[in-house]
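Lecture 7 notes: from sequence to structure.
We start with the chain below.
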Amino acid sequence: MADRLELRPLREGDEAELRRIHTTPEVRRWWDTPEEGFPWTDDPGSTRLTVLVDGAVAGLVQYYEEPEPKYRHANIDVFLDPAVHGRGLGTEVVRRVARHLIEERGHHRITIDPAAANAAAIRAYEKAGFRRVGVLRRYERDTDGDGWHDGLLMELVVDETD
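Predicted structure tokens for the same chain:
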């Protein structure tokens, strides 16, 4: 990969660029308009990392860990600046976070739930090893708030065999 990719904890000063990326039509279509407090206080249960490409802020990846031992797993969400789409960076970001969650946090199962119509994201997640589990019908409100769209539940399970 020619691009230098880095994931690091959010820092003061990341907000403006992350908000700009979040509000681009290509990202907002799937992520809606950023909530008040983004990226610091709008989703306190998630761990968020800034995605840097060649030293510049290029997106955000977050993960949530289910603490209940009976249901222990993690899930991932990611968005990248449309200017860096199509380079395989989303796949690599998801691979790195999944590796961290498995090797360092001890998870055996990781989920991700893109909109069923988000073909580019689905391809990226499949390249990272995620498999389609099923369609979550009328899963999420449309950006305009008037309707619903389907989600696709995908998972990566450690030591799963075909």
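Points to note: The mean pLDDT is 93. Helices lie at 15-22, 25-31, 89-104, 119-127.
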